[in-house]
Amino acid sequence: MIRRRGDNGILVLTAAFFAAFTLIAMNYFVIAYRQEHVSAAAERSELTICAGESQGTIYDRYMRPLVNRETCLRAVAVPTALNREKTVAYAADRESFLEAYDKGVPFVFECRKDTPDLEGLTVFGIPERYGGESLAQHIVGYTSDGRGVAGIEAAYDAVLRNGSGENSVTYSIDGFGRVLIGDGKKVTRSSASKTGVVTTLDSDIQRICEKYGSAAGRGAVAVVDVKNGDILGMASFPGYTTDGLGAAVNDKDSPLIDRCLYSYGVGSIFKLVTACEAIQENKGGYRYCCTGSTSVGGQNFNCHLLDGHGLQGMSSAMTNSCNTYFISLSKELNVEKLRKCAYNLGFGRETYLCEGIVGSAGVLPTVRELEVPAELANFSFGQGKLTATPLQITQLTCAIANEGEMPVLRLIKGMTLDGKSTANEKSPQFSAAIDRRTASLLRQMMISAIRDNSESKARSEKVQIGAKTSTAQTGRYGSDGEELCHAWITGFFPAESPGYALTVLVEDGGYGNTAAAPIFRSIAEEITALEK
User: Fold this and answer.
1) Rounded to an integer, what distance in angstroms lies between the CA atom of residue 445 and that of residue 468?
2) Is the Cβ–Cβ distance between 53 and 72 less than 8 Å?
3) Which residues does residue 154 pair with via DSSP β-bridges, in sequence order?
4) Is the peptide bond before 238 cis (omega within 30 degrees of 0)?
């Protein structure tokens, strides 16, 4: 094959031109690629790091917190802006701090009180929800997965967790995610913990109730201001803690139950209601000779004193807690009026405190049931089908101590926005349950029941008390063959000018005078000392 020299020149020239074009194109691509990254690096965005959430507080009546009582210090750290060895000295946990620091990205760690606030180190005080002492746990309740599931935590979840609780710091970052320290930072500190729910509880009184009430084993204590119905102390036993919920669920003593809201057989405390109706029917002077037992409708009823109390008037029968006197008295009364009197004094009605915290209505027998003689006999001294909660019994005592004006029990006082003042507070509400004269006579009977009974374990040298005990039969028996009875006492103090109504229940505790009365006396004495 013959080639011309001119053809070779054209081929060489074409190849050179193609090589030059390829080189120019590659240079253009590199320049464009570099410009894209320069532009990306120049772009800025923000990085927000949350140190923790603040939640609204549940307060007592004096604005003392029942939750958020302690503060945990946490710091947001930017490793590139800090000295590793100097900063680790502020960490509560050295090992976890170094592990996080060495990753080279911003992180949160628990720090000491002396931790400084620097450009690359921002310190926050985050309220601990249940840290330290846990008061009124059954009332406060608890949370799960960031929401309330029991107690006030559940009832006021929207108020306590309203979305404004973030504590955070925001930095500018470049396109590679690097914090731009020189551009400053934006710090958000939440004031959500100042807002919240104000209860009627008194932390000091609640603490006293829990201190002495724990001796009950299983039971309840309630303290109410007789003048306005405010619940000052409300404790159930056994208690529980938020970090022991798993064990509480499986505990045979059911610590998650709020026994203040649970109904029990009442026993002799109900003699106050029978006496109340008798006085209102002008039969307060009724007298009866107790021989130790009586038969009603073919059923035998015993008095706790088997030899009998002898001739009894109403006041002495109340002091001696004579069953047969009140059985005989009930036969003289209008059954429909007696039941209505009990209803007016709170029996058979729920006690609404807030959503999810509602006392049982208990059982109030119907008129038709009470027309059966034996059922009426049981009813007259608080046995049979009748049941009531410690709150209902305390409300009854309030009516007697407050000259017949029965206050509606109140647990929630209102809301607060600043942790200093209460908003949306409602005025106390009352119902005229009984007349003033009747209340006065019942009050004197309760005072006599303690003052004139030398064996009363509720008697105190430090404060005068008016009270009534109960030993409520349950129909259940222990391993020793003895019947299990609920021990009760309800009363008011100081006797001369009642300020507090107090009820103590010891579930399956036996006699009211031996199991419940000593707890009552200790609580009453310490509350009195607290006032002084």
Assistant:
1) 9
2) no
3) none
4) yes
DSSP structure string for 447-491: HHHHHT-TT-TT--SSS--EEEEEEEEEEEE-TTSPEEEEEEEEE
The span from the CA of 183 to the CA of 445, in Å, is 78
Give the single-character DSSP code of 342: H
List of domains in the chain: 45-199 (3.90.1310), 203-412+427-531 (3.40.710.10)
β-strands 107-110, 430-432 pairing: unpaired
CA–CA distance, 128 with 67 (Å, rounded to integer)? 8
Residue 6 has a pLDDT of 47
- The span from the CA of 494 to the CA of 460, in Å, is 11
What was the pLDDT predicted at 18? Answer: 53
For strand 57-59 and strand 196-199, is the pairing parallel, antiparallel, or unpaired?
parallel
Q: What is the pTM of this model?
A: 0.88
- How far from each other are the two terminal CA atoms of the chain, in whole angstroms? 129
Residue type, 498: P
* Cα 473 from Cα 510, distance rounded (Å): 9
Residues near 15 by beta carbon (within 8 Å), at least 6 away in sequence: none
Q: Are strands 357-359 and 264-265 parallel, antiparallel or unpaired?
A: unpaired
User: Contact at 8 Å (CB) between 392 and 347?
Assistant: yes
Query: Which DSSP string corresponds to 195-243?
Result: -EEEES--HHHHHHHHHHHGGGSSEEEEEEETTT-BEEEEEEES---GG
Tell me, what's the pLDDT at 183? 83
Q: Provide the pLDDT for residue 255.
A: 97
- pLDDT, residue 44, reads 60
Please report the pLDDT score of residue 3 as a whole number: 39
Using CA atoms, how far apart are residues 436 and 343, in angstroms rounded to an integer?
Answer: 18
All residue ranges of the chain with pLDDT < 70 are 1-44
* C-alpha distances in Å from residue 102, one per residue of 105, 172, 181: 8, 21, 18
- The span from the CA of 458 to the CA of 456, in Å, is 5
Q: What is the DSSP string of 416-428?
A: ESSSSS-BSPPPP
Residues 387-401: pLDDT tens digits?
999 999 999 999 999
| pLDDT value of residue 309 | 95
pLDDT of residue 43: 54
- CA dihedral angle for residue 102, residue 108, residue 110, residue 112, rounded to 10 degrees: 80
Compute and round to an integer the Cα radius of gyration of the chain: 37
- The angle, 0 to 180 degrees and rounded to 10, between the axes of the packed helices 203-213 and 517-531 is 150
What separation in angstroms does the CA of 233 have from each of 346, 391, 464?
19, 11, 20
